[in-house]
Design brief:
With 375 residues, the protein is of the alpha+beta class. It is built from 3 helices and 23 strands.
Length: 375
């Protein structure tokens, strides 16, 4: 009897633990549902935009747009496809950092944006039921931005504000959010990355007549990959303070480079300029000025990735971090008179030298043997 009571107790405890564990698991996997009670005739849903700047400087005042469309009906859950009421404006968010500049950081920049459920639902705002919608990010009109391609699924439940004493005129709204095909809760966040490339222009001088102190001039132009998009200026870092960067036909130094402008840059051997904050669809042209008086250099290119060189000019697309090194080579023949390392000439000189010595000795002998004449 005691043994039966013991096993009965163990069984009861196990059942209680099982029920408790199941309840806890179920609660932990259910999507978050937010209740929204209308205030001053509005029922606002707030979502979050996050931007991670991996490198470069993202433009301030970036605007992101989101599109809300009917979702997929689910008969088993009594969910119908929602309707987007006429006149409803898709939500947008403008991101402007407090510091005025979006610089590279591992901490995402955040901005919240909202839309009114009552305006979205239209006539369904007063019809009890569950309505499915999808929220997607519109392709950003910003180079360097990675779009968040995951759909945010939203189910809006229209219920009586007072379930115990409904009056048929006051309603509340429950909003459940799920990201993509996930069943777990979602916080209503859209995530973007801002990532750019760099291009380094370097100078190298070679040859036995290569002048390492000489200054060389380059003309650099960057072009937008998509004229419809909003680009920020290109930044740069100079390896030496004496490097000059100006607009063509100007003497004023610049702090950044605009697209479509020609810039004049001076470099000496071992110097370089790194251009940064360049989206991956940007193209460029770099030309070295070879019109200087008494130009005696041959121009070649050492680049990674490889690009072609024609008439001291190269063009390319900044699809990754790249380096373009212009190599100027001035080889020449020193003026040393007779070239003594030439065997025939050495032999001729030897013969001449021997002949000269023989002549001198012969003259000396003649002078010694000649009799002395009296005065």
């Amino acid at each position: 009897m005691k043994l039966k009571k013991f096993f009965a107790g163990v069984l009861a405890a196990a059942m209680m633990l099982t029920v408790g564990a199941t309840s806890a698991f179920a609660a932990g996997t259910q999507p978050t549902t937010t209740k929204i009670t209308p205030n001053e005739g509005k029922a606002m849903v707030t979502l979050t935009k996050q931007l991670t700047v991996k490198n470069g400087v993202a433009p301030s005042g970036m605007e992101f747009e989101f599109k809300i469309e009917p979702g997929t009906a689910n008969a088993a859950e009594h969910v119908v496809a929602g309707e987007v009421a006429s006149g409803f404006q898709n939500p947008t968010v403008t991101m402007t950092p407090e510091s005025g500049t979006y610089t590279a950081t591992t901490t995402p920049y955040k901005a919240e944006f909202s839309f009114d459920l009552i305006k979205l639902l239209g006539g369904n705002a007063t019809k009890l039921g569950k309505y499915a919608y999808t929220i997607t990010e519109v392709e950003p009109n910003l180079p360097g931005i990675t779009k968040d391609n995951e759909i945010l699924n939203m189910v809006v439940s229209v219920v009586n504000a007072d379930k115990d004493d409904p009056d048929g005129s006051n309603y509340a709204y429950y909003v459940a959010l799920r990201k993509g095909n996930a069943t777990e809760k979602a916080e209503g966040k859209f995530n973007n990355d801002y990532e750019t490339n760099s291009l380094t222009l370097a100078k190298k001088v070679k040859g036995n007549f290569g002048d390492l102190s000489e200054t060389f001039t380059f003309y650099v132009t960057f072009y937008k990959g998509d004229a419809t998009k909003t680009y920020t200026d290109i930044l740069f870092d100079k390896s030496n303070a004496e490097i000059s960067i100006t607009k063509q036909n100007s003497t004023d130094a610049v702090k950044s480079l605009s697209y479509g402008e020609i810039y004049e840059i001076t470099l000496k051997h071992g110097q370089n300029v790194q251009f940064t904050n360049i989206p991956s669809d940007v193209t460029y042209t770099i030309a070295e000025d070879t019109t200087k008086a008494d130009w005696q250099y041959t121009v070649s290119l050492d680049s990674n990735p490889t690009v072609a060189l024609s008439n001291a000019t190269t063009e390319g697309t900044v699809s990754e971090t790249a380096t373009v090194t212009f190599v100027n080579n001035h080889q020449g023949t020193p003026d040393m008179g007779v070239v003594l390392d030439n065997a025939p000439y050495i032999a001729m000189l030897a013969i001449v030298a021997i002949g000269g010595v023989a002549l001198m000795l012969n003259l000396s002998l003649i002078h010694i043997s000649e009799p002395t004449r009296p005065y």
